Task: inverse folding
């Protein structure tokens, strides 16, 4: 992406995260990527759960190289990235390598350098973080322009999502979050779940929560996962597939670009944002 230095392009960078695992985050990223691609966007998925690969498994792929080879200097970004279904690009994570659960500053700089020299044209970078509140999660959330927090109707999901939001607010002064409700039985249930989270954040934190919508609970998703496909591919007329189509429309038509402090300024070239803001 060297050409971005002279001709900055507005690349939408979205960290999809959650306070806990098991909320369907990776499945959301995979289906959202396909849906965005169908709307004419060029999408790159960064599987940022670095020690536990998931995206490639969900797509039924077996990449030869992964993020481990990149960070160790054994392969370039272009050699590691693979093409997935319908042209979606994927930067796969490794599997079972504990040291990658917390990458150091040198490895982050190497990642930046690799992206800076990457010459593939992209419109949307989807960062699929791991669950929880590790240093990797907070780093990738703060490096993205938008943070999408995935929650479900389960009480533990709300508790853990609040813990993540609180950490990003108190330690990194992040004040804007988009909330996506997954596995909701209805639109009214999804709104009620969002309101419960909104009430507690409004009471204790000075932040803004933006309701992004919901993905309905749908047995078609389980069938798609078992067959290592996305539901938008296997059952495009299902309720969940329609939900992903609507989600992609909202995400794909968000033209707002913002810089978020020193980290976002430092990673400006990676995300196609001109470094002339004076931050």
Result:
């Amino acid at each position: 992406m060297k050409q971005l230095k002279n001709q900055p392009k507005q690349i939408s960078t979205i960290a999809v995260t959650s306070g806990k695992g098991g909320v369907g985050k990776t499945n959301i990223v995979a289906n959202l990527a396909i849906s965005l691609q169908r709307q004419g966007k060029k999408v790159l998925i960064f599987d940022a759960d670095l020690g536990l690969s998931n995206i490639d498994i969900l797509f039924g792929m077996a990449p030869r190289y992964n993020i481990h080879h990149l960070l160790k200097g054994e392969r370039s970004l272009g050699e590691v990235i693979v093409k997935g279904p319908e042209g979606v690009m994927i930067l796969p994570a490794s599997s079972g390598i504990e040291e990658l659960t917390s990458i150091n500053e040198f490895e982050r700089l190497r990642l930046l350098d690799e992206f800076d020299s990457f010459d593939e044209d992209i419109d949307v970078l989807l960062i699929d973080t791991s669950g929880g509140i590790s240093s990797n999660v907070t780093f990738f959330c703060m490096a993205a322009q938008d943070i999408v927090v995935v929650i479900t109707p389960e009480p533990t999901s709300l508790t853990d999502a609040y813990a993540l939001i609180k950490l990003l607010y108190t330690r990194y002064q992040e004040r804007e979050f988009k909330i996506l409700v997954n596995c909701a039985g209805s639109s009214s249930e999804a709104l009620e779940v969002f309101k419960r989270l909104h009430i507690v954040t409004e009471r204790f934190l000075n932040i803004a929560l933006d309701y992004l919508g919901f993905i309905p609970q749908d047995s078609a998703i389980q069938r798609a996962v078992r067959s290592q496909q996305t539901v938008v591919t296997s059952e495009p007329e299902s309720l969940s597939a329609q939900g992903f189509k609507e989600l992609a429309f909202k995400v794909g038509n968000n033209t707002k670009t913002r810089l978020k402090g020193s980290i976002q300024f430092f990673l400006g070239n990676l995300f196609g944002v001109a470094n002339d803001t004076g931050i």
